[in-house]
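Support case: user asked for a sample of complex input and structure output to validate their parser. Sending the pair below.
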Amino acid sequence: EMQLLEYGGSLVQPGGSLTLSCAASGFTFSSSSMNWVRQAPGKGLEWVSVVSYNSDTTHYADSVKGRFTISRDNSKNILYLQMKSLRAEDTALYYCVKDATGWGKFDLWGQGTVVTVSS
Amino acid sequence: VVTQTPRSLSVTPGQSASISCKSSQSLLNSDGKTYLYWYLQKPGQPPQPLIYEVSNRFSGVPDRFSGSGSGTDFTLKISRVEAEDAGVYYCMQSILFPRAFGQGTRVEIK
C-alpha cells in the first residue's frame, strides 16, 4: 500500500526554524516528483514547493522563497522541508504529496503535520 | 490565478451540481495536454484526487464525477449527488510554477 507519513511539526517561535520530514513507502520514491502543500486553519490549499525525482529541479511559492528549502534522500525514501525565519502566516497543516507525472497529478497525499508559529 | 465559483452550494441527493474554474491564462501546454486538476477534501481528511488533465478520472473515482472544458474555462460536474460527496472541491493549474489552487467550493448535501 502506498503511504506518506509526515512528521516534525511543532510549535515554534517567530523567526525560528523547523524541518519537516515525510517517509514514503509502497511505491518507487526515487521515480516521483514530490511536493509540499499547506493549509492554514480554516483556509484553502496552498502549494508550497516541489522537488524533481532526482533533486535536479526545485520550485517554491513566492511566499516561502528564500526561507524554505525542499530536499530528498532517495536512499532513505524521505522528503524534507527546511523552514527558516518562520512567520505567523506559516502556521498550517503541511501535506506531503506525490506527483505521478511531475505535472501536478497529485495521486497520493499524507495526513499532514501541524506547524504553529507563535510566541 | 485560478478562480472557482460558486464558493458554496447546497445540493439535494440525486440532483446534479456543477463547479466552475477559470484560469487567467490558457492551461493548454505545447505537448497538447491541458493541466487542470480537481481534488476533493472531505471533512477532517487530506485532499483526494478526482480528475486529472481536465476530464480523466483517477482510479477508483465514480463515473458520477466528470470534468470538461478547455483553455481557460473548466467545469466539474457531479451527477446523482450522494451524501459522501460532501466536502470542499478544489481545482488546480499545473502548467507553470507556482502551482495554484482555486479558492475551493464547499458542497453541502441537504
